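Postdoc handover notes: sequence design on the structure in folder B. Input C-alpha cells:
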C-alpha cells in the first residue's frame, strides 16, 4: 500500500489554524510569538463537532490574554475551507470544527478512486526499518505465543509500510550454541529408542513427543546409520537435521498465518564470518569488556544497567548475548537499516536493557533500536484455560490452533490486544459464525457489501451524485471510513497495530447501522447510485483494514442458522 493519500484531516485543520494565528498577528490582534505545538484531536463529544483544538489555552500565557478571547479571534481569522461547515468556541477556550456534509460526500469519490491505496500516508518518507519477529529456537514446533508475536510483527510491518517506511521482515534463526547441542542429544535418545536401545533424554533436554515423530521419520528415511557413528558426530548430524526439520515446520506454520519474510538470518553465519569476535574486539577497544574468573563480561553496569553480562563463558563458549550484540551491529551498521524493531516474547523482558546498552556501547544511538515485548496467550474452551496439547504433551502449538480456528481468527485475535497485555483467546468464540465473534462480525460486513453489489448488477455508480448522501447514517459511515489514514498514523507512530482491529469493528458497526436504516437499491435511481458508491467505498476501507491486520475479506459468508447473505439481501431488496 504505497503512500498516496492526501494530507491527514487534522493536518489540514492545523494548517488553517496556523494561517489564522499568523493573520491575527499581522493585524496586531495577537502578539508576535512562536506558535506552540497543539495537535488537532478528534472531539471528545461528537455533538460539539468532529475535531477540536486547545491552541488558545496554550497561547494564553505567552499572549497574556484570556484563552476564550484568543479562540474567538482565531475563529474570526480562520480561512474559509470547503471541508469545514461550522467552527465554534466552547468552554474555557476550545475550538471545535464540524466537517461539511458536502465535503464528506466527496470523500466517497476519493476513497473509491484510491482503492487499495486508501489509508496510506507518507509518514516514513522511505526510512528503512528492519522488523525482526518470532525468531523462536528451531528446536520444536512453534508455541501459541510465537503465533501472537508473528501476527503482531507482521501487522506492524504492514502498517509501517502503509505509512511510507521501507520495510524488511526478518527471522533470526538461533542455529548455534549449547541448546542446539542439547537438541542433538535429545533427538539421538529418541532415535535410539526406536531401535530398542535404552538411552534416556538428557535432563535438560527436549522431552516433547514431537521428537518421537522426528525419530520415526529419521528411522524411516535414514535407517540406523547414526547408531554406528561416534556419539559426538551423531549428535552434530542429528542436530543439523533436526534444526532443518523444525525450521521447515516453522516456515509452513508461519506461511499459514500469512507471514512471509525477506530473510531467514542464520546465527551461525555470524560465527562463520568472524562477526562475533569482531564485535567483542570493538567493545574491548571502547573499554566495555572485563575478564573475571576466566569469563568475558560486558560491563553494562557503567551504562546504567543493574549488573554486568557474560559474553563468553569460562569454558570459551560465547553466550547468546554475544551473538545478539553482533547481530544488532550487523543490522544497524553493516546492513545500514535506519531503524530496527525487535518483537520479543515475555521471557525476554530482562534482555531489553542490556541489548540497548550494548548498541550504545558500539557507538550506535539506542533510539534506533526499539524492542517490543508481547505477553503470553491463554487459550480457553468452555471458559476454562487449556494448557496441555493432546499431540505433544506440552504447551499447545500454533499449528493446533490454526487447525482449530484458522488463520483469520488467529490473526485478528492475536492483534486485537496491545502487546503488553495478556491475551485470553476464546477458541469457542473464534469458531462461532455469529456477530459475537469479532472477526466474523467484520468479515460479514464485507460479505454483505459484496452481496449488495452483486444484487445491484449493472447499475452504474461510478458517476454517482454523492451530494445526495445526507442521511445521518450515511454521514456517520463516511466519517468512520475517513479515519483510516489517522488510524494508520497512530498505529505506525506508536508501533501498536491493535488499533486496527478496534477500528475495523467500529467501521463494521457503522456499516451495519447504515444497512439497517438506509435502503440501498430502490426506485430512486440517483440515490441508488450514490448509496452503491458509498457501500463500495466502505468495502474498500474494510478490505484495506483487514489487509493491514492480515485477515481475508470474503465476498460470501453465512451466519449460524441463516440463509446465504446474498439470498437475504435479494429478499429484502
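Designed sequence:
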Amino acid at each position: 500500500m504505497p503512500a498516496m493519500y492526501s494530507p491527514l484531516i487534522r493536518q489540514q485543520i492545523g494548517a488553517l489554524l496556523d494561517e489564522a494565528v499568523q493573520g491575527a498577528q499581522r493585524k496586531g490582534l495577537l502578539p508576535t510569538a512562536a506558535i506552540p505545538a497543539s495537535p488537532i484531536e478528534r472531539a471528545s463529544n461528537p455533538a460539539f463537532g468532529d475535531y477540536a483544538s486547545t491552541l488558545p489555552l496554550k497561547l494564553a500565557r505567552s499572549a497574556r490574554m484570556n484563552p476564550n478571547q484568543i479562540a474567538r479571534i482565531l475563529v474570526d481569522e480562520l480561512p474559509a475551507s470547503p471541508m469545514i461547515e461550522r467552527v465554534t468556541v466552547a468552554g474555557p477556550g476550545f475550538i471545535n470544527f464540524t466537517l461539511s456534509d458536502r465535503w464528506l460526500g466527496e470523500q466517497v469519490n476519493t476513497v473509491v478512486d484510491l482503492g487499495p491505496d486508501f489509508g496510506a500516508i507518507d509518514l516514513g518518507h522511505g526510512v528503512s526499518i528492519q522488523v525482526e519477529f518470532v525468531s523462536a529456537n528451531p528446536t520444536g514446533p512453534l508455541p501459541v505465543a510465537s503465533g501472537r508475536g508473528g501476527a503482531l510483527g507482521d501487522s506492524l510491518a504492514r502498517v509501517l509500510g502503509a505509512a511510507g517506511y521501507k520495510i524488511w521482515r526478518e527471522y533470526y534463526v538461533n542455529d548455534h550454541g549449547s541448546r542446539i547441542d542439547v537438541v542433538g542429544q535429545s533427538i539421538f535418545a529418541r532415535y535410539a529408542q526406536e531401535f530398542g536401545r535404552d538411552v534416556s533424554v538428557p535432563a535438560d533436554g527436549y522431552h516433547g513427543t514431537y521428537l518421537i515423530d522426528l525419530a520415526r521419520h529419521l528411522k524411516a528415511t535414514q535407517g540406523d546409520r547414526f547408531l554406528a557413528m561416534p556419539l559426538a558426530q551423531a549428535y552434530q548430524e542429528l542436530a543439523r537435521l533436526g534444526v532443518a526439520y523444525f525450521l521447515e515446520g516453522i516456515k509452513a506454520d508461519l506461511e499459514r498465518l500469512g507471514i512471509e519474510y525477506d530473510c531467514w538470518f542464520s546465527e551461525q553465519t555470524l560465527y562463520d564470518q568472524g562477526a562475533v569476535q569482531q564485535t567483542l574486539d570493538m567493545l574491548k577497544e571502547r573499554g566495555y569488556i572485563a575478564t573475571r574468573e576466566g569469563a568475558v563480561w560486558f560491563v553494562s553496569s557503567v551504562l546504567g544497567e543493574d549488573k554486568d553480562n557474560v559474553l563468553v563463558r569460562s569454558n570459551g563458549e560465547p553466550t547468546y548475548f554475544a551473538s545478539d550484540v553482533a547481530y544488532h551491529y550487523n543490522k544497524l551498521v553493516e546492513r545500514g537499516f535506519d531503524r530496527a524493531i525487535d518483537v520479543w516474547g515475555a521471557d525476554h523482558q530482562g534482555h531489553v536493557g542490556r541489548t540497548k546498552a550494548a548498541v550504545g556501547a558500539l557507538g550506535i544511538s539506542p533510539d534506533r533500536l526499539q524492542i517490543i515485548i508481547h505477553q503470553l496467550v491463554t487459550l480457553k474452551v468452555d471458559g476454562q484455560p487449556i494448557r496441555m496439547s493432546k499431540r505433544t504433551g506440552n504447551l499447545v502449538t500454533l499449528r493446533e490452533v490454526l487447525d482449530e480456528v484458522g488463520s483469520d481468527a488467529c490473526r485478528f485475535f492475536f492483534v486485537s490486544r496491545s502487546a503488553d497485555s495478556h491475551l485470553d483467546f476464546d477458541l469457542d468464540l473464534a469458531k462461532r459464525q455469529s456477530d459475537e465473534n469479532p472477526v466474523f462480525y467484520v468479515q460479514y460486513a464485507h460479505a454483505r457489501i459484496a452481496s449488495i453489489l452483486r444484487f445491484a448488477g449493472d447499475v452504474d455508480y461510478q458517476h454517482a451524485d454523492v451530494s445526495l448522501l445526507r442521511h445521518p447514517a450515511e454521514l456517520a459511515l463516511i466519517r468512520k471510513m475517513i479515519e483510516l489514514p489517522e488510524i494508520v498514523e497512530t498505529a505506525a507512530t506508536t508501533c501498536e497495530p491493535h488499533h486496527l482491529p478496534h477500528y475495523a469493528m467500529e467501521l463494521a458497526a457503522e456499516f451495519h447501522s447504515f444497512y439497517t436504516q438506509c435502503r440501498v437499491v430502490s426506485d430512486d435511481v440517483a440515490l441508488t447510485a450514490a448509496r452503491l458508491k458509498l457501500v463500495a467505498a466502505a468495502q474498500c476501507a474494510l478490505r484495506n483494514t483487514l489487509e493491514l491486520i492480515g485477515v481475508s475479506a470474503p465476498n460470501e459468508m453465512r451466519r449460524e442458522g441463516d440463509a446465504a447473505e446474498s439470498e437475504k439481501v435479494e429478499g429484502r431488496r
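Context for whoever picks this up: The longest helix spans residues 231-256. Don't rerun without checking with the PI first.
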